[in-house]
Structure formats: C-alpha cells, structure tokens
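User: I'll paste a sequence; please echo it back and then give the predicted structure.

Assistant: Echoing your sequence first, then the prediction.
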Amino acid sequence: MQGQYNHGAAYYRCRFPQEYALANQIEHPRNVYLREDTLTDTLDTWLASAFTPHHIEKTITAITDAQPAEHPTALTTAAEAIIAECDAKLERYRATLDAGADPTVVTAWITQTQAERTRAEADLHAQTHTTPKRMSRTEITSLVQALGDIVTVLRDADPADKAEVYRQLGLRLTYYPETETVRTEIDLNAHRGVLVRVRGGT
C-alpha cells in the first residue's frame, strides 16, 4: 500500500491493477483506502496496553512461548560429533605418547587431529551465528521493559521516530479488505538492534 494525503489526512491506498487480478484469478477490490490515524491510534493503544504493569508478565510469557523451539541442524550435530571424536583421539594419543610410543609418529597424529578439530569448530561457529537463538526470559524481560518506556510516548511522538520504533519492533500489518480488519504482528528479536529514543513525548 502507498501513502498519500487526502483533505489533510494521511491514508494508505492500494490500487491493485484490475488486469493483474483478473489474469491471476485473484479477488481484490480495485481500490482500498485506509486512514492512517484509524489504524495507528488503535495500534498504539494495543501496544501500550501490552506493556502496562498488570499485563507485563502475560506479555513476557506470550513472547517467550511464541519463540520456535531450537533444533540443532544436521551440520551442527555433525560438527559436535567430530569435535568429540577428536578430543577422544587426542586423549588416546597422549596416553600412547606417555607409554613410550615414537614421538614423531604420535605428534603427526596429534597435528592431523587438531587440524580436523579446528575445521569442525569453524563449522560449528558458523552454524551458531546463522541459526536464530531462543531468547531467555531474562533477556525478554529486559527488552520488554525498555519497550514499555517507549510505547507510553508513541501517541505524541515525532512521526519519524514513531516509524523507527515500529520498524525496530518488526511491526507487520496485513489488511483484509473483505472484513475491513488489520492483522498486527511484532517480532521482538534480540539481534534487532538498539531501540531509538523518541522525541515529542512527555
């Protein structure tokens, strides 16, 4: 949807091309208008209510429970298995060396095994940094408390700051023209970044 002003008020407008809809057999109104303040006033009220003292624990629990379960990937499991196997080998090689085996031969085994372990650690490190991690309840509580200070001033905030807060909340709105309703979702991610301060609130 595109933003536009009509009689001094901000609107979201969707002009879905009739030819495209017909060609793809998609039912969609030719024009959809959604007044911004009708949406944002309700949105800000909803956000503020989620962070009130008597709702805060319920909000934290809902965010915690909504996180997907962590399941190790096949690459992670394989890397961990290789590391464990290498550690076992290194222990045996050291015992063999202590028992009087040829140091040159055993040192070559150790060098080869340590190189294999280093590669597996690199694979594991790469997987750790690309796989989303579940946030602890403590982390979520800290994040929610920080958000609570922000949502209380959203209604009177500078529009640019408000848009940035929405962005950092991972706000996603989906409009359903057939019912004239909007589905609202936020994505609280520990790696989303530092939340901005808002101007214009008291």
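The chain is about 55% helix and 10% strand. Helices lie at 18-23, 36-50, 56-66, 74-98, 103-130, 137-151, 159-168.
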